[in-house]
Amino acid sequence: MSTDSQFGLSVEQADSFAVMNGFAVVKLTGRLIDDSIGMFEASWERILAGGIQGVAVDMTDLEFVSSAGLRSLHKFGKALVSPRSGLVLFGMRPAMAKVFKYSGFERMIPIVETRHEAMKRLRVRKGGELGGTM
Fold first, then answer.
1. pLDDT value of position 127
2. What is the pLDDT of residue 41?
3. Do 122 and 114 contact (CB within 8 A), yes or no?
4. What is the Cα–Cα distance from 81 to 120, expressed in whole angstroms?
5. CA–CA separation, 90 vs 82, rounded Å?
6. Any long-range contacts for 42-51 (C-beta under 8 Å, 24+ apart)?
7. Helix axis angle, 37-49 relative to 67-79, nearest 10°?
8. R_g (Cα) of the chain, nearest Å
9. Quick one: CA torsion of 62, 67, 73, 76, rounded to 10 degrees?
10. pTM value?
11. C-beta separation of 89 from 58 below 8 A
12. Residues 14, 37: Cα–Cα separation, whole Å
């Protein structure tokens, strides 16, 4: 796990989380702000390079996302968009969920409540049945 304690963001590395059938779960904790975006994006580059087909992002312990954090999530969501891959966010706190809703984010990237729902959405997407565009 990579941690930037100065900025309060923790991102699981591509080689440290379980990957099953081409899917991975990334847990974010702390604050995804301008100063932590570099570490966040470096972790995502490793994930993409590893041939992951889908990623579920656990936001249960994420306290804050800046506009730069939203842009980074959108960027990597776009990188994972195809009929056989995807990005799903889950476990958002209510206040954060409002920000994502009002910014139109949920039209681009699916947002669900639980890990189980996220993995189910990714499996459906792998089968080519889940719509949505970035």
1. 53
2. 86
3. no
4. 16
5. 20
6. 42/2, 43/2, 43/11, 43/12, 43/13, 43/14, 44/72, 44/76, 44/79, 46/13, 46/14, 46/15, 47/14, 47/76, 48/76, 48/79, 48/80, 49/14, 50/14, 50/15, 50/19, 51/22
7. 10
8. 13
9. -150
10. 0.78
11. no
12. 16
In the block, which residue shows the tokens 């702000």? Answer: 33
Q: Which residues, including other chains, have CB under 8 Å from residue 71's CB and lie 6 or more apart?
A: none
Q: Which residues pair with 2 in a beta bridge?
A: 11
Q: What is the token pair recorded at 52?
A: 């992951």
Cα 24 versus chain centre, distance: 10
Q: Coil, helix or strand for 26?
A: strand
State how beta strands 111-112 and 9-11 pair. Answer: unpaired
Considering the chain, what percentage of its residues have pLDDT values greater than 70? 73
Token pair of 93 as six digits = 């706190």
